[in-house]
Amino acid sequence: MNGDRYSVFSVLKNAATGNRHWQPAWRSAAPKPSYDVVIVGGGGHGLATAYYLAKEHGIRNVAVVEKGWIGGGNVGRNTTIVRSNYMLPANGRFYEWSLKLWEGLSQDINYNVMFSQRGVINLAHTSPQLDTFARRGNAMRIEGIDCELLGPAEIAPLVPRLRLDHPVFPVVGGLIQKRAGNARHDAVAWGYARAADRLGVDIVENCEVTGFTFDGDRITGIETSRGPIAAAKTAVAVAGSTSDVLRRAGLERLPIESHVLQAYVTEPIKPFLDTVVTFGVGHLYISQSDKGGLVFGGDIDGYNSYAQRGGLPIIEHLSEGLATFFPSASRLRVLRSWGGIMDMSMDGSPIICKGPRDGLYINAGWCYGGFKATPGSGWCFAHTIANDAPHNLNAAFTLDRFAAGASIDERGAGPKPWLH
């Protein structure tokens, strides 16, 4: 494993030697015949789970199996927003714990994930919408989560280039969470991979899962493109590919639909926007990256897909929204776009639990909340795997809640993704 610790001294030392002696951030591990835990999916959630299994529970005989390369999936295909402004108690407590982990993450894993608490503002365009925001804010404060209701006069200096007096979509107020912000998405994957590797976890890239092995009804491991791997416990954290992968475990019907969620980056410009702004009416969210490009996204593409590319109607819709609220950005050129595969649960809330088969654990259903949940998801999933029981923070996020009628309908994140 890589024993280097990143610090100003290591930077100076390597700079003095022409940066020729940096070690790879993680080993290129070959799969062993068996592990205590195999995690299918080398995205942010899978890597965070491996890290917290090793760090918090001392379980280090762990492999993370990724069909592609680290950072090539959803963790590198999002708009990098981190927040905990959820209304329902189960979601609010979970995402707030995740936000607290974000606040110390760079120091914890010794990797700069560039977490910037620049604030997230949700804009309201009607009085009823502002009332809804006030209700959400009150629910957040009950759970001890920071937020503040703003009027137009308070928003104007925070977002000086925003058009407040649009004749159709006037800004009548907003809800800000100042501790929210964004982070560099691929750095999160690289940082967790490196930290898990330092604790002895094997990270096996370019290794696709082709099936599962069974002893009766119990899952005893996986079949992969690089051979079989036995495991006492098999955990699946593959986001939009959940239904496809778990079909190979005999789970034909899950309360999940897969959709593409696109994001775009404009050409870089001088400082334009130093917070994150979202428009609920048109479902547009926007921030500015450290490189200067405006990063924006919105709704999922309405059709089911496992593809990492989307259609033109969403590009047109979001570009119109950007030009509507930021007229001075209307002539910017879009340089890049990407699509992540969202695993949309039917109530907009995640699934972190033991699976319906012994030896199987499921982490899925993240809808629009996957990136921001990365530390909390890994922390809770690791607890569930290690203890064969959920933590209080994820006790409500069961798979069978849909059959029991105990859905957690979080407005704005679901349900019925096909009706978005």
Keywords:
single chain; 420 residues; 8-stranded mixed β-sheet; 18 strands; 28% helix
Provide a quick synopsis of the model.
This protein has 420 residues and is an alpha/beta fold. It has helices at 8-16, 44-57, 89-103, 105-109, 127-142, 152-158, 185-198, 242-247, 312-325, 374-387, 401-404, and strands at residues 34-40, 62-65, 81-82, 120-124, 148-150, 173-177, 181-182, 202-204, 209-215, 218-224, 229-236, 256-266, 276-279, 284-288, 294-304, 334-345, 351-354, 360-364.
Helix share of residues? 25-40%
% residues in beta strands:
25-35%
Q: Identify low-pLDDT runs.
A: none
Shape: globular
What string, H for helix and E for strand, traces the elements in order?
A: HEHEEHHEHEHEEHEEEEHEEEEHEEEHH
Could you give the distance between the termini?
45 Å
Report the structural category: alpha/beta
Oligomer: single chain
Alpha-carbon Rg, integer: 21 Å
Could you describe the largest sheet, including whether it forms a barrel?
8 strands, mixed
What's the total number of strands?
Answer: 18
**Overall average pLDDT:** 93
The tally of helices reads 11
